[in-house]
Amino acid sequence: MTKTSRALSVWRTIDTDTFLVGTPHYPEHVDESYWDNDARRMAQAGFNTARLGEFAWHIFEPHEGTFDFDLFDRAIAGLGRHGIKTILCTPTATPPRWLTVKHPEILRLDGNGRSMSHGSRQHADTSSTIFRAYSRKITQAMAEHYRDNPHVIGWQTDNELNTSMPESYSPSALKEFQAYLQDTYKTIDKLNFAWGGDFWATAYDDFSQVVFPQDFAPTFPGPGHLQDYHRFLAFSTARFQHDQVEILRATNKDWFIFHNLGGLRDIDFRGQFSTDLDFVGYDIYPFLYDEFFRFGDHAKAQALHLDVCRGFSGNYIVPEQQSGFGAQPGFCTLTPEPGEMRRMAMSSVARGADGVMFFRWRPAHFGAEIYWMGVIDHDDVARHRYDEAKQFATEMTALKDKILGTWVRMDVGIAGSDFDNQEAHKTFPIGLPSPQDDAILLHQYCYDRGIACGFIHPEDDLSKLKVFYVPHWVIWKDGWTERLETFARNGGTVIIGARTGTRDGNNHVIRETAPGSSLSKLTGVRVEDFGRLAAPGANGLFATMTRSGGLVIPPDRPAESSRRIRRFTFGNRELDAGYFYENLAVDSDVEALGVWSNRYAEGTPVITSRTVGKGRVLYVGTYLTPELTHQLTTRTFADADVAPLVAGLPEGVEVTLRENGERRLLFLQNIKDTTAEVTGVPSGKNLLDSDRAITGALTLEGYGCAIIELN
C-alpha cells in the first residue's frame, strides 16, 4: 500500500494495489500455544493483515523508561511466517497505571469535577502537556524498535479518539484552553467581541480569567464560548495525533498511517486531523448504529454512517467491521444472522472501503468486552463467521484490481463534513433538528429508491453532482455561495434549507436580512419573518430534546393547538410544515413553488425557485418532513436527470455504484433473509458469480450480494 497525499475530497481514492483484509488481533489475551494456529487459520481465510497493540502500553513499557517488545516481536514474527503483515497501533488510549499514579493530573475531569479513573480507557486528557510527552516517548520507542521490521507495514494512531469522552474540565486542560484562545484571538478585546462579552457581563480582563463553558451553572453559556471550547477539543485531538505522526513519518517514510474513528465527536475532519494521515479508517458496527439512530433497519443505519464518513475525506478502510454479537456491560447489539456478516462488509466496500478488517479475531475471555464476538468463538472453533470472512477475503483479493481506484457515485449531494456547523447547532439547538437529522430524511428517501446519494462539503468538487442540498447550515461563507452559483450555472440544482447563513463565524446572528447578502442574491429571497413550529405531533415547549437535537414527545401532554400549525401548498398538494417557518419576500425573477395556505401568512412564499444559468436554485423556508421530501424530490429530481441506479428496485435491496473513467461497478445487496428478484439491472457481468452475464434480471438469495461490472 502506498500513501495518499492528494487534497481531501469525497472523490479521493486510496493509492494502493492491496486490498487490506484481516482482523484486529490480541495475542496478549491468549496463551502463546494458540498463536501459530491462529496465524495459520488467518492465512487460510485469505487474510493479509492483522492489527495489534492498541491497548498494550503496559506491556510495551511495564515500568517507566523500561521497554519490553518481546511478546509482540514473537507474535509479529509468527504472523509473518504465514504471510500476515502487521499494522501496529500507538497504545495511548490506555496509559499504564504507573503513569496515572505518578501523574494523576493527566486524568480527565468531567463537568461535575469527577476524575476519570484507571480501569477503563481514554481516561487521560489528550490536551495535557505531560500526557503528550509520555505519548511521544512510547511512540518513539516503538517506532525505533520496529523501524526495519519487514512485517510491520503501517500504523494506527491511538484508538477511536474521543469516542468515550472528548471533554475535560481539569486545571491543566483549562490552561491549555486559555493558551489556545490567546493564540487564536491575540487580544482579550477580540475574544470578548467574539463571545459577546457585553451580554450578562461575561467579558474578561485577560485570558487567565477565562473559564470553561459549563452547562447549567446555573444557566446556559454563550454559544460563542461553547463553540470555541469544542474547537479547542478538536484542536487538542489533532495536535495529540500530530505528535505521533511526526515521529512515525521521521522514522520510516514507507509506513502508511491512519486512525480508526468511532464516535466522530470533537474532530475536525477537514483540518489537520485528516491531512496528517494517509487515509482515514472508520469502525463499522451496523447493529450498534441502528440502536443509536432507531431506524429499525441496521442496513440503512450503516449506509448513513458510511456516507457521512466518506464525505469527510473520501475512500477509507474499515479497521473494525462488526462480525458478531457486540456487548459491553451497559448494552448489547443484536446478532448478525448467517450471511449478514459478509453482506455488511460488502456494503462497506460498496460505499467506499478500500480495506476491511473483521473485529476481532477471537473474543476476549476477560474484561469489559467478554461478549464482543469475533471471527472465531470462545471455544476456539471456527464456525459460519469464519466461513463468511474467508469468502469475503477471497472475493476482495480476486477483485481488488477492479475495485481499487474507483469512487462512489453521487447524483444527490447533501452538505456535510463541516465542523463549525455541526457544533453551531449544538450550541443553540432550540428544539430544532440538527442539519444531519434533517438530512437523514433525504438520505433515507434516496436509499429506499436506489438513488446515488451521499454527503459532500461545499468546498469539494461539486461537478459530479446533479442536485446539492444544504440542510440549514447557520454558518455560511461567501466563497461557498460562489461555488454553488457555478454549480447551478453549469446545470446543477441547488436546494437551500431554512436558517442557512443566519450566523457568522463567531456564532453571532448576522446584522443583515437573512439569508445574508450573497445567498439572497443567489436565491432571490429575503426572510421577512420566522418562528418555531411544533414538531409533527409534538407539543411546543413541552417537548424535550434528544441528544441529537431532535424531539421526544411527552405522552401526558395535550396535542398542540391549531394556532401553532402552519400549512402550505406545494404543487397540487397541501402539507403540514414542521419545526420552523419563514415568510419570504422574493425578487421579480423568482417563482414561488409553495406558499403558506392558512392563518395570517396565507399566500406568502415558502418554497421558491430561481433560474441560474442552465440550472436553478431553490429555497425552502421550513424543515423537511417525509411528505415534503417526497414532493420536493418529485418536483426536482426528474428535471435534474436524477434517476434510480436500478429501475423498480424491490424493497430490501441496497444498490450503490463505484466508478472511475474506466469502469463502473454496480453493487447489489439483499438485506433480507428471503430471496429477492431484481429487474431493470443494467447489462453487465456478475463478478461474484463467475462473470455470469446479466441482462436485466437478477436473483439474490437471502443476504446475497452481486457486483455487476457494467458494459
From TrEMBL:
Domain Glycoside hydrolase family 42 N-terminal: 26-398
Catalyzed chemical reaction(s): Hydrolysis of terminal non-reducing beta-D-galactose residues in beta-D-galactosides
This protein's GO CC annotations: beta-galactosidase complex
Sequence positions that bind substrate: R121, N159
Enzyme class at the top of the EC tree: hydrolase
Keyword Transmembrane helix: no
GO molecular function: beta-galactosidase activity; metal ion binding
Domain Beta-galactosidase trimerisation: 444-534, 568-642
The protein's Enzyme Commission number: 3.2.1.23
Sorted UniProt keywords: Glycosidase, Hydrolase, Metal-binding, Zinc
Record-annotated active site: E160 (proton donor), E320 (nucleophile)
One Pfam assignment: Glyco_hydro_42C
Keyword DNA-binding assigned: no
Top-rank taxon, per record: Bacteria
Gene3D superfamilies for this protein: 3.40.50.880, Glycosidases, Golgi alpha-mannosidase II
GO annotation terms (biological process): galactose metabolic process
Domain (Beta-galactosidase C-terminal) ranges: 652-709
Family classification: Belongs to the glycosyl hydrolase 42 family.
This protein's name: Beta-galactosidase
Record organism: Pararhizobium polonicum
